[in-house]
Amino acid sequence: MAAKTERKIKVVADNRKARFNYEIGEVFEAGIALTGTEVKSLRSGKATIAESYADSRGGELWLINSNIPEYLQASRFNHLPKRPRKLLLHKRQVNKLAGAVEREGMTLVPLKLYFNERGRAKIEIALGRGKKLHDKRETLKKRSWEREKGRLMREKG
User: pLDDT tens for residues 20-45?
Assistant: First the structure.
């Protein structure tokens, strides 16, 4: 069996706070319906998805509150930086995600925005359940202990 080659993806935006604020469940890869100026702006590596989330409207999923800044070279044909963007998923996946959000009170959290090996803009979204304050404290304690343990092991050896 041939060894898998590493996929060539270019990460544009990463939501690092998501794993701290949410317990991440199942992860999905979705396409995004973008305009030309949005793609050009993304290729220059400027986008933020830290405060964004996905929402179900009319049987479709939409990425809300993601910021793709205007492309400076585009004149009057520019896009709105925080407009809702349609997520492209199979109907069965949309129904599954929308059902989990409505029934179980979960949130659709974007994890990272990237270009895949074919040059298509994709977003990784996950079903997440919000962490309570004590869970966040526990995560911080665990992280700081791991850091301290690594420091002590380096000094010893």
Answer: 888 888 899 999 998 888 888 888 88
Give CA–CA dist 81/38, Å, rounded. Answer: 8
**What is the distance between the alpha carbons of residues 56 and 71, in angstroms, rounded to a whole number?**
28
Give the global pTM. Answer: 0.77
Give the count of alpha carbons within 13 A of 95, CB side only: 3
Look at residue 84 and give its three-state secondary structure: coil
CA separation for the pair 50, 111 (Å, rounded): 9
The residues that bridge with 48 in the sheet, in sequence order, are 67
Buried b (16+ CB within 10 A) or exposed e, 52-73: bbbbbeeeebbbbebebbebee
73-118: per-residue pLDDT in tens? 877 878 888 889 999 999 999 998 888 888 888 888 999 999 988 8
E strands, 15-141, are 22-32, 53-57, 60-64, 85-88, 107-115, 121-130
Pair 41, 115: CB distance under 8 Å: no
